[in-house]
Structure formats: structure tokens, C-alpha cells
Amino acid sequence: MVTTQPAGVPPRPTARTDPSSAPTSTGGAADRWRPFLLRWHFYAGILIGPFLLVAAITGTLYALIPQLDRAVYAHELTVDHVGTAELPMSEQVAAARRAHPEGTITSVTPAPRAGETTRVLLSAADVPAGRSRTVFVDPYTGDVRGALNTSGEWLPVRAWFDDLHRNLHLGDVGRNYSEIGASWLWVVALGGLALWIGHRRRTHKLRRLLTPDRNAPRRGRTLSWHGAVGVWIIIGLIGLSASGLSWSRYAGGHIGDLRSDMSWTERSVSTTAPSTLPTAPSVPPSSSPTAPTIGNNDFTRVYETAQRAGLVAPMNITPPTERGSAWTVAENARGYPSHYDSIAVDPTTFAVTDRVDFAQWPLMAKLTKWAISAHMGLFGIINQIALVLLGIGLVSVIVRGYLMWWRRRPTRDDRHLPRAPRRGALGSLRPAEAVGVVVVAAILGWFLPWFGIPLALFVLVDTARGMIAVRRQPAAPEAAGTEVGR
Q1: Residue 107 phi, psi dihedral angles, 5° rounding
Q2: Which of 41, 97, 344, 377 has the smallest C-beta neighbourhood within 10 Å, fewest atoms?
Q3: What's this model's pTM, rounded to 2 decimal places?
Q4: What per-residue confidence (pLDDT) applies to 219?
Q5: Helical H runs in 309-380?
Q6: Minimal CA–CA distance to 227: which of 63, 397, 465?
Q7: Which long-range contacts does 468-473 make (Cβ < 8 Å, 24+ apart)?
């Protein structure tokens, strides 16, 4: 409903021209959907914005860490002098065990390049949960260069920033923040894109979808930067959202189930070692009857088998965990080109008993692996720069969104918060469209719990506020007119 200003009455200062919410004179689907999208984008941006802002800042910091990590731990990662030949792998492992006899060996990563160290990962009682003690060995001399508590292959600095971005160092509870951000990022981005395209079409500036209006009024200029930058980064934002959800706590479980049902999972080798089944190796009396025996030269023989099989560095050698199981050797080249071939090696004959090449993985499994690697900046410096630019772009979009919201506050009483877009937006849709929105939201809310829970809270709070407003303010024709353009 549009009301006109009575004659002789000066316009109220709160009635601003707002290019983002001005009514249109054209009919059609765009006019039906715009109020709904505007209110949806507004609430998602205002209430989820803090989660996205924290994720953007911590993610940008994380993308800058790899070079710092390698500089801080240069002594552990590199050797003083490159020798002419490396020691046998078993001798390198033995050197690590002499310096650190505690715990058990979980895996060994041979030096991936000349001048770098071999890593021997230990599971020890005095290491925090989820961490390993990594011993760094000079492959040419057998000297132990140091030992660090690591998170998989991540050294302490990178592991610290990884936890900061993933859970704010709050454990499983903190993981909810990042899952909220990943669950809503794509929704906010796509809703904003639809609104921005609609705005450019109404103002006959569709060709300037990617460029801001530098000469527009203050709020219009902020809107144009908000929209244009959002378009530039939207593909990256959707990629970050999808890859982040794939290893999230709750949505990640649903995605994992879907991938399993569709046979989109990574392929792995069988660890059953045929030759060990009839005659298991002897076990020292003090050991568990199910523990395997590892010979003095076994790491060398397994490594040589992997090299003959054509596996390339970096690779992880994992000893068997129980009698009757095989060694596994898996490539772990997570950058470009990616190498994830793996083999199983019989602990008695040291023959390859099974092999799975990366080429055998389903396409969706490959895409998931690549997406996660890109999310973590593992494709090199260009990947890192792209992540930093994405992070800066997202921060700027969020800050400008809040700035536009703040500039909508009533000028005659700056203590009041800005108004939200008008209620009843769902009613602007056709019945079938409104039902479709509710059904899709319900399905997404089940599949992405941290999308559904905030959405339900938004609806409940907004409904309650609407009921309270109706009771406190009796309807009046002049009051109804103030809803235009909110």
C-alpha cells in the first residue's frame, strides 16, 4: 500500500529514497519474489553476519600461514647438508626410536624432496588427543632434528590457526560456529545475487553488474560496492561453503551418508594380507597376542616396494595394526598435480596385495578432494592469494551490509535501530510458491541442521515481535503507509 503526503506538510526525514528497496511499477515474478528475498537476505545478513565475519577473518589468516610455518620450523623440516645418498628407511626409523622410544609408530613420511627431513609419527600417552608426536630425522645422517606435537601433517603454528578457523579453540562446541557460517553462506550469497540482478535490471544498469556506482549518493554507493564485490566473489563463496560443509560436524555426516549411498566415496585398499593368515608371525611374550611383529628391515623393504610400484613422494607408510593385516603406503600429494595412489603390502612377502589408483576414484570423490584442498590453500601461492582476496572481499561485503543497515535508522532519533524490510513477504508469493519455499526450507533444515535451527529461531522471534507490535500499535491508515520501502 502506498500513501501520499498531505498537502502543505513537509516530508518526514525518515522517508528516504532507498535504491535497494524502492517499489517497482512492473509486475511479474520479480515483484512477487523481491519482498521475500529482501527480508530473507536482511535477516540472514544481520544475524548470521557475525559468524561469517569471524570465519572470513580466521580463514584469511589461515591462508597466510604455510610460509610462516615453514620459516618457524625450518630447522626441523630441512637438513644442514644434502648428502649423496639417503640411509635405508629402517635406519632412519631406528634413529627416531632411539631418541624417542615412547609410544608406538603410527606412520612414516619419507623425505619428500632433497634437503628435507623424514617424519616418524608416534602415538604417545603424553600427547594431547588428536595430536601425534612427529620426530624429524635427517635422511642422510640419521640425526634427529627435533620433535613436535602435530595435527596430522600440520605443524604447531598451522595446527593452531586451523583450530582457530575450525572451532575457535572451543572443541566440538566451537565447531558449531563454522558450520553455521558454511550452512548460511551460500544462502546469503545467492539471495544477494538475485536482489542485485533485480536492482540493476530495474535501474537499467544490468551491464554494470560487476562495477560499483562511484558517483551515487552515499547509501547508493555503499549498496553498489556491496553488490558488485559480492558478484565478483560469489563463485568462490559457494565453493568455500560447499567444501566447508563436507567436513562439518552434522551436515558433514549427512553429506558423507549421501556420498556413500551414491558410491561417491574415496577408494581404499584392502588391508588383509593373504600370506599372514595361515601362519601369523611370532609375537614377543610381553606383547598383546593381536599385535604384529615389525622386523628390523621391514620399513626399508616396504618403502622399496612402494618405489618399485611407482608411488611418488610425498607418501605415508603405515604399519599393520594387527596380525593378518597388511602395510599400506599412500601418496599424499594434495597440491597440483594431485597424487593419491595407494597400495597394500604383505608383511611376510612384501609383495603388493592390492592397489587403488586415484584414477579409479569416482568423479565426485575427486571433486570433493580437490575442493577441500583448494579451501585449505594447498594448490600453492596462487590458491593462497585467491583465498586472501576472497576473505577480504567477504569482510568488505559484510561490513558494507551492516553500514547500509545502520544508515537506515530514523534521523530524528538516532537511538533507534534501523527498521527491517516489511513483514508478510511470504504472502506476496503465490500459494504454490509459498508452499514450495516452506518445503525446501524444511528439507534443507533437516539436511543442514545449523541452517534449520537459526531459521526456526528467526521465524519464531519475528512472529513474536509482529504479534507484540500489533497489540501495542492499533492499525491506522497513516501507519500502514510507513511500511513502504522498509
Answers
A1: -170, 165
A2: 97
A3: 0.83
A4: 81
A5: 363-375
A6: 397
A7: none
Using CA atoms, how far apart are residues 340 and 331, in angstroms rounded to an integer?
A: 5
For residue 372, give every residue at least 6 positions away whose Cβ sits within 8 Å of its Cβ, in sequence order, or none: 243, 246, 247
CA-based R_g, the chain, Å:
29
SS3 378: coil
In the block, which residue shows the cell 512492473? 26
Cell of 442: 524444511
Cα torsion for 180, 50, 184, 407, to the nearest 10°? 160
**What number of residues does the chain have?**
486
- Residues in contact with 386: Cβ distance below 8 Å, sequence separation at least 6, in sequence order: 236
DSSP-assigned letter for residue 275 = G
Task: Please answer whether residues 401 and 226 qualify as being in contact, where contact means their C-beta atoms are separated by less than 8 angstroms.
Answer: yes
CB-CB contact of 155 with 66 (8 Å): no
State the helix-helix crossing angle for 29-63 and 449-472, rounded to 10 degrees.
130
- Is residue 121 within 8 A of residue 103, CB to CB? The reply is no
Distance between CA atoms of residues 357 and 268, nearest Å: 9
Residue 481 has pLDDT above 60, yes or no: no
Residue located via cell numbers 500459494: 431
Which amino acid, one-letter code, is at 419? R
- The C-alpha torsion from 346 through 349 and 353 to 355, rounded to 10°, is 80
Q: What angle do CA 367, 230, 389 make, to 5 degrees?
A: 65
Q: What percent of the chain has pLDDT over 90?
A: 65
Residues with Cβ within 8 Å of 162's Cβ and at least 6 positions away in sequence, in order, are: 62, 151, 154
Q: Once rounded to an integer, what is the mean pLDDT over residues 16-37?
A: 62
Least-confidence region, from 2-11, 92-101, 241-250, 260-269: 2-11
Q: Which three cell numbers stand for residue 399?
A: 561490513
